[in-house]
Specification:
The chain is built from nine helices and no strands. The mean pLDDT is 93. 76% of the residues lie in helices and 0% in strands. The longest helix has 24 residues.
Length: 180
Amino acid sequence: MTSLRDRALDAAVELLGTQGLKALTHRRIDQHAQLPEGSTSNYFRTRDALLNGVAGAIVEQEMAAAGPAFAPKSADEFLDALVALVDRVTRDQRTETTARLVLFMEASHDPSLRGALWHGRALFAAALEPVLRGLGARDPHTSAGALMACCEGLILHRIARHDDTDVRPFLDLVMKGALA
C-alpha cells in the first residue's frame, strides 16, 4: 500500500515532469494525487522541503533503476547496462527524468536544492567507483565523473531536444577512455 507521502511525491514528480516548476504547488499536488486538501503541506511544510523531497524521491527511483550498471561482469556488460539505463530514463521514465532536469535548473539559484541533487550525484559516483576499479580504471573517481557527465549530457539532449540518437558509440568512447 502506498503511503500518502509517497502518493504526494509521485504526483509532484508527475506535475513537475509534465507541466514544469510553476505547476508544483501543494494544492495542485493534493488535487493530482486525490489527497485531502493540506496533505502535501503536512509532509512538506515549505516549498524548499517539497523540492528537496521530490529530489530525494527521484534519486531513489534512479538508483533502483541503475542496479544492473553496478554489477557488471565485464566492460561489455557495463556498456550494455549504461546504454539500457540511458534508454530507460529517457523513454520509460521520461517524466521523472524531465522532473529531475527541471530541478537541476532550479538548483542553479537554490543552494538547498543544489545540495540535495549533489548528494544524489555523490551516491551514483560512490556506486560507480568500485565498478570502474573492478574493470581496471586507474582513476575510478575521475572515470565515474566522466561517465556520469557523458550520461547526463546524453540524457539532457534526449529529453530537451527529443534526440533519439544511439548513445552506445558515445558511451563506448568515454568508457574506453575511463578504463584506459
